Amino acid sequence: MQIDFHDETNSVGEDQIDLIQRILTFAADKEELTAEAEISLNFVNNSEIQELNRNYRQKDTPTDVISFAMQERGEGEMEIVGEEVPLILGDIVISVDKAIEQAKEYNHSLERELSFLALHGFLHLLGYDHIEKADEKKMFHRQEEILHEFGLKRN
After folding, report:
1. Is CATH 3.40.50.300 correct for 2-150?
2. Residue 27 near residue 63 (C-beta atoms within 8 A)
3. Percent of the chain residues past pLDDT 90, beyond the cut
4. Hey, how many other C-beta atoms are within 10 angstroms of the C-beta on 10?
5. pTM, two decimal places
6. CA distance linking residue 56 with residue 79, whole number of Å
């Protein structure tokens, strides 16, 4: 899977990016995605993610992660079919500020928190959701399952 990383904060280290790359590739294998799948992962600060949250979700507060799925068809949109077209899953945006806050709050490493948020956003791109209780249970079970199998457990 191709992952394009963009760090607008200039604060995410190479080791952290490597870990995220490995866990998302692991998750893509578990979800049986084609190797040609593509995503974009963006690291921003609280003010940038708050603006996105306000503009796209009508929630004027910073959040930890937002996903923008490209494979969801809107009403009246046609499905694009063709083997030459790469599978572009979408964009994941993570607030590094929120990740730091939550790592301290949950008493685990920033690496674990960034990996968790990247995986959470990735599962959203694949269609997992947590609006309904049953869907939430399924999504949260899947993300914990992947984190444990990968070896990134809570402390």
Report:
1. no
2. no
3. 84
4. 7
5. 0.89
6. 23
